[in-house]
Amino acid sequence: xxxxxxxxxxxxxxxxxxxxxxDMQDAEIVAGVDVFDDGTAxxxxxxxxxxxxxxxxxxxxxxxxxxxxxxLDAAVEKNLPVVLxxxxxxxxxxxxxxxxxxxxxxxxxxxxxxxxxxxxxxxxTATDVxxxxxxxxxxxxxxxxxxxxxxxxxxxxxxxxxxEAADGKYEYVYDRSQRxxxxxxxxxxxxxxxxxxxxxxxxxxxxxxxxxxEIKHTAYSRSIFGNGAISAAIFLAGKKAxxxxxxxxxxxx
Length: 253
What we know:
- The protein is α/β, with parallel strands linked by helices.
- It has helices at 12-21, 65-78, 91-101, 114-130, 153-165, 223-236, 246-252, and strands spanning 2-7, 27-33, 45-46, 58-61, 82-84, 105-108, 136-143, 171-173, 187-194, 200-208, 211-219, 242-244.
């Protein structure tokens, strides 16, 4: 039985994960952390991870960027592995994540879905085929109107996968409104839509001479992210210090 602390337990994803774990035999949420505890959780909720005195095996973090630093410090102090799902981290915070991973196991992923992580592999193959043959690359992502960061961490992860396969030749462009010129070859346009209750849509477009190839992922429910995070937590519990990602989870399945 993997004992989980849910950081961000009163948020949308925190509640989704709590609901999913409630029906599982191999995982249990033993405590939550949230400054906005709404009193509906079936487990004790603390204002910070540092205050939590419940024994656990791993932390799942679906909180906010501003809460990540304190969470990491407390996790290191308690020697707790962390599944880090929060996006929109600054360069300094990413450095903090790497520092923490020298002391505890940290699994960081911009998207916990099995589908997205499989698409990342597909994009590397597609880039090998299309990158040097005149194909333009665009990424369009859509999320609910409450999402704070834009573009999404997943959109950036998709772009990074493409750029890695292309030896870093691409620059990311988020706004062309002030530009009056032909589209340069070595750029990836990334567009963000925030509307309604869209859980998440990512569309990668390879547009070449006389044909367009689209690799698209649509999330119809937040459960796909919750199930991925839980699988990651079960995988990460007991692991030695270091940086992990969802490819490690998939390989262990």
